[in-house]
Amino acid sequence: MRFSNNDRAKVLIEALPSIKKYSGKTVVIKYGGNAMISEELKDAVMGDIVLLALIGIRVVLVHGGGPDISNTIKTMGKETKFINGLRVTDAETAEIVEMVLCGKVNKGLVNIIGNKGGKAVGISGVDGQLLKATFIDKELGFVGEVSEVNIELVENILDSGYIPVISTIACDDDGNIFNINADTAAAKIAIALKAEALISMTDIVGLLRDRYDTDSLIKVVEASEVQGLIDDEIVTGGMIPKVGCCVDAVNNGVKKVFIIDGRMPHSILVELLTDEGIGTMFVKELEK
């Protein structure tokens, strides 16, 4: 399909209200490892993030990297074990997580953003003690629960006109390094920044009333409705903590949280800059 110049102009005009709404505001984007399914798609996502920054949105990118971590662990002859969706992380695995997330994944994303004409700085939750953590459960090893967020470094990067690209590890006062769930880290960072929106890019289309029917997408969820969705087994398994992070964010000052399909090209732009949207939006409560 070819678009005429009039078609292109119409798209830009229709996006103008959303551009005005978000310009100058902070949007945190959580980019999950399972949404990084190809280099081509990753390239497109970083291009969308550069575009958002160029139209005046203060973009913060928080990334995971689970598949890359699992592949590296397998290459090193170790086994990966999960408990309730969290990777069991002994001391050696914690070093691998730090190496993969802060090195390969983080700097790779920063490099793509730069090649797209954007300006990015890659940091981790350890830099500036951005994320401090405590042990969740000794059985999980060095898997952390965020206990403190020191947001000054991120704000300084934003004020300097750069996109912070944050890998989700944390530290404590004893020098331990923790593996942090990316959804949790993104929610805590969005709360600390008083973000206008948090977008969780993952490998699902959003919440479905019928998991086998994509036409049953739930477009809007109020925080008070979530327990009912869990009781009705619409939200199950690994989606429970993910949705819990969405509720935590909207209950603590983030205006909107979106779960969108990161496998769909330009899904961020469709969600933020069009009226239709494509995923599930969480709010504390709907405006009356």
**pLDDT averaged residue by residue:** 90
Distinct helical segment count: 9
Shape: globular
Radius of gyration: 19 Å
Within CATH, the superfamily carries the name Acetylglutamate kinase-like
Q: Give the total of beta strands.
A: 14
Task: Tell me the domain tally.
Answer: 1
The main pleated sheet reads as: 8 strands, mixed
At the first level of CATH, the class is Alpha Beta
Strand order of the largest sheet: 5-8-2-1-11-13-14-12
Portion of residues in beta strands equals 15-25%
Structural class of the secondary elements? Answer: alpha/beta
Unreliable stretches (pLDDT < 50, length at least 5) are: none
Elements, N to C (H/E): HEHEHEEHEEEHEEEHEEHHEHE
CATH fold field value: Carbamate kinase
Write the layout of secondary structure elements.
Layout: H1 5-22, E1 26-31, H2 39-54, E2 58-63, H3 66-75, E3 82-83, E4 86-87, H4 91-115, E5 120-124, E6 131-135, E7 144-149, H5 152-159, E8 163-167, E9 169-171, E10 177-179, H6 182-193, E11 197-202, E12 220-222, H7 226-231, H8 239-250, E13 256-261, H9 267-273, E14 280-283
Parallel strand pairs: 1-2, 1-11, 2-8, 5-8, 11-13, 12-14
Antiparallel strand pairs: 3-4, 6-7, 9-10, 13-14
Helix pairs in contact: 3-4, 6-8
Task: Describe what you observe in this structure.
This protein has one domain (24-283): Acetylglutamate kinase-like (Carbamate kinase). Helix 3 (66-75) packs across helix 4 (91-115) and helix 6 (182-193) runs parallel beside helix 8. Strand 3 and strand 4 (86-87) form a beta hairpin. The relative contact order is 0.15. It has 288 residues and is of the alpha/beta class. The protein has helices spanning 5-22, 39-54, 66-75, 91-115, 152-159, 182-193, 226-231, 239-250, 267-273, and strands at 26-31, 58-63, 82-83, 86-87, 120-124, 131-135, 144-149, 163-167, 169-171, 177-179, 197-202, 220-222, 256-261, 280-283.
